[in-house]
């Protein structure tokens, strides 16, 4: 994926002139390696996409309690980072890889880049996120790609904002939606997959034909869509964007509040909860890791309560464990997506390229 929900949050913060810190840490001192398996190295290397952010204090706590120093190796977007690990299979650049999501999961597993490990605390992870029974990867976070809307626009026009995929092809929403290219953007791909999940292999092309006829605009990436074309975002207002509907994330409204200047009492944007596709991100112990014990300790920590509760305001995603509480910003200004669209990772792996090619021919060309 070219941009994840976390990247979008970080990019939105950047657009508003804010630099975010990073968050990762916790108590993973007792790993499954056991006290007798002392690590040969005190450095554990985490390979990730560029949007992995951790707060220094929480990371320091993990390092102090575990005895490991975490080296972060950021490697572009998640797709590019995964490609590099596949190319270096067996001689990885680090010990743990974070950032493969359910749109790329089967590709990672089929290439055998991970060593199975059942992380401590896995029993606290919600069952719907446990997509790999062999524990080659550990779920870390989730988030929803959804259409966002400009509340002020729809209030002024006295039109109810759309809530479902079906709504978006209605005449009252003609020429209002901007989405990202499914071939170049993670949210664009996620929105395509939402239509596949909703209408199936037989129906999604017909849906996109209707969406195109209803004036959907396609741009290369999230940054352009959200911060230039969308009228409801801080960046879009500055750029005089004229599209009141945009494909973004369910976490975008809380971020608009967090970085608003001045901070608004309520989010200026809303979420059309019947348009969503759920992304789940995973981490795994890389096969051939030089510090396997340290890698296991780090995986344990990524699903600890400490990390899971710190993560939302650092990467703008949701925790996957049962005991982790969301921050007030999310509970007050965010939404709960009860029934996001879903497509099995193996189905995505089998069809992703042909779906994107068909979509490009139908919508872009």
Keywords:
alpha/beta; globular; single chain; 365 residues; 10 strands; 38% helix; 14 helices
Shape: globular
Q: How many DSSP helices? A: 14
- State the distance separating the first and last CA atoms: 22 Å
Rg for CA atoms: 20 Å
Number of strands: 10
Oligomeric assembly: single chain
Low-confidence stretches: 1-7, 13-39
Strand residue content: 15-25%
What percent of residues adopt helix (DSSP H or I)?
25-40%
Order of helical and strand elements: HEHEHEHEEHEHEHHEHEHHHEHH
Whole-number mean pLDDT: 89
Structural class: alpha/beta
Largest sheet: 10 strands, mixed
Structure report:
It is built from 14 helices and 10 strands. The chain has helices at 5-15, 56-66, 78-87, 105-110, 151-157, 186-213, 222-229, 234-238, 252-258, 292-302, 305-310, 312-315, 328-333, 345-364; strands at 43-48, 69-74, 96-101, 114-115, 138-150, 177-180, 217-219, 245-249, 269-286, 318-319. Strands 1, 2, 3, 4, 5, 6, 7, 8, 9 and 10 form a 10-stranded mixed beta sheet that branches. Strand 6, helix 6 (186-213) and strand 7 form a beta-alpha-beta unit. The longest helix is centred in the middle third of the chain and has 28 residues, at 186-213. It starts with a helix and ends with a helix. The model is unreliable at 1-7 and 13-39 (pLDDT under 50).
What topology does this entry show?
Elements: H1 5-15, E1 43-48, H2 56-66, E2 69-74, H3 78-87, E3 96-101, H4 105-110, E4 114-115, E5 138-150, H5 151-157, E6 177-180, H6 186-213, E7 217-219, H7 222-229, H8 234-238, E8 245-249, H9 252-258, E9 269-286, H10 292-302, H11 305-310, H12 312-315, E10 318-319, H13 328-333, H14 345-364
Parallel strand pairs: 1-2, 1-3, 6-7, 6-8
Antiparallel strand pairs: 3-9, 4-9, 5-8, 5-9, 5-10
Helix pairs in contact: 1-7, 6-14
């Amino acid at each position: 994926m070219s941009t994840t929900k976390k990247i979008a949050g970080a990019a939105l913060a950047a657009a508003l002139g804010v630099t975010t810190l990073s968050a990762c840490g916790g108590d993973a001192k007792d790993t499954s390696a056991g006290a007798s398996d002392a690590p040969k190295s005190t450095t554990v290397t985490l390979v990730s996409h560029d949007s992995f952010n951790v707060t220094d204090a929480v990371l320091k706590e993990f390092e102090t309690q575990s005895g490991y120093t975490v080296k972060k190796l950021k490697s572009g977007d998640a797709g590019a980072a995964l490609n590099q690990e596949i190319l270096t299979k067996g001689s990885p650049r680090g010990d743990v890889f974070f950032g493969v999501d359910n749109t790329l999961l089967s590709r990672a597993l089929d290439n055998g880049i991970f060593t199975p490990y059942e992380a401590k605390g896995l029993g606290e992870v919600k069952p719907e996120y446990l997509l790999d029974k062999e524990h080659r990867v550990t779920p870390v976070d989730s988030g929803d790609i959804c259409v966002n809307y400009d509340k002020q626009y729809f209030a002024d026009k006295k039109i109810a904002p759309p809530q479902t995929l079906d709504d978006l092809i209605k005449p009252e929403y003609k020429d209002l939606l901007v989405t990202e290219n499914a071939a170049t953007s993670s949210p664009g791909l996620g929105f395509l997959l939402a239509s596949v999940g909703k209408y199936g292999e037989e129906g999604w092309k017909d849906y996109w034909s209707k969406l195109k006829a209803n004036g959907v605009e396609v741009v290369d990436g999230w940054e352009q869509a959200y911060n230039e074309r969308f009228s409801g975002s801080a960046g879009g207002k500055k750029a005089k964007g004229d599209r009141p509907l945009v494909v973004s994330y369910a976490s975008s409204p809380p971020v608009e509040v967090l970085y608003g200047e001045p901070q608004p009492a309520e989010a200026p944007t809303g979420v059309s909860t019947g348009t969503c596709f759920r992304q789940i991100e995973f981490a795994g112990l890389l096969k051939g890791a030089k510090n396997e014990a340290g890698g296991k300790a780090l995986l344990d920590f990524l699903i600890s309560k400490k990390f899971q509760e710190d993560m939302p305001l650092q990467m703008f995603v949701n925790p996957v464990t049962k005991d982790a509480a969301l921050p007030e910003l999310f509970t007050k200004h965010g939404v709960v997506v009860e029934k996001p669209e879903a497509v099995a990772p193996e189905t995505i792996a089998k069809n992703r390229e042909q779906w994107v090619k068909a979509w490009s021919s139908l919508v872009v060309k």
